[in-house]
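In the previous chapter we treated chains in isolation. Here, by contrast, the input contains two separate entities that must be folded as one system, with a combined length of 359 residues.
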Amino acid sequence: MIECNDLGRRFGTVRAVDAVSFAVSGDVVILGPSGSGKSTLLRLIAGLEIPDTGTIALDGAVVSQAGWALSPRRRNISCMFQMPALWPHMTVAENVRFAMGGIARNGSADRLDALLEGAAIAPLADRYPREISGGEARRVALVRALAREAQYLLLDEPLLNLNRELKDRMFDLLQEEQRRTGAVLVYITHDLEEADQIPATVLRMAGGRLVEGPE
Amino acid sequence: MPVLAALARFAPVAALILLAQLRHTDPLLTDAARVFRRGVVRTWVQVRLPLLAPGLVAAACMAFALSAGELGATLLVIPPGLETVTIRMYNYLHYGSSGAVAGLGLVMTVLMLAAGAVAVAAMRGWSRLVNGRPSSHGAGGDTG
């Protein structure tokens, strides 16, 4: 369960997230136009930003409050950012393998292969991020997030700019992995069609505020 | 002592180079390291240090080049019986041994050019590694 109470984060004079409160158990889709504060909200939930006001609780435990945030590592989260953010000195396989962390070492190679195959990026395993396209990098970033097998899967526009066929394929992979791991999905998008595909609570943001969703 | 003196004089320069490298590094890469962290040591060795490596190499090269040519502080702190190349050059100059000064000067010039070249190569290598293809870190896609 994700609970946000009076959450606020400002950058200078801009209120990126302003008095956002909600409590959601299960998957959640956060919808809104560019600059509405979706990504900042995700970063707050991930523990990558410290709130100026309010609290965030995951499964009842407060993980962020004004001026303090539990480190992302200790939140049992995985995250895909709006930009791929692949480590440039590691190959595709190494990027994903690093995220797999302590997952059962036996069979981790099989799991890596399955994930890369599922995202149709197996042939890119030994390439460096500079040697792949932007869309391929996005798929690697999504696979890296899935590989973590965390309790909360935070995805920021994961299917942005992918063609229909790839979108469907990645969506299938996401659902399959989610079924397998039971991860709670926090999915950010500005695409209504994409949002409709996900059976989840929908929150709408605009101007840093929650304009629709459970209070 | 001469090492400490050089450290005191040139550590700020090295720190500035490292700071520039830090500011040049995409913050999302370090955010990703925070999310996918696998123990402090492993994360530092596998992610953070490689991201800082070019800055570390450049800072080390610059500190070396500046320290090798340093005279003032070294003269003040060097113990009796020890000398650096720069102090030897200074002494040769004092006694009018211009041939030896020229030779050592050439050696110093080559050393400093080499240090500078290594620093530039490290920064250019990193730039190539990150920006080999601009699309690899953009929001581009497979829109077919």
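DSSP finds six helices and eleven strands in chain A. The helical segments of chain A are 38-46, 92-100, 108-118, 134-147, 164-181, 192-196. Compare these points with the single-chain example from earlier in the chapter.
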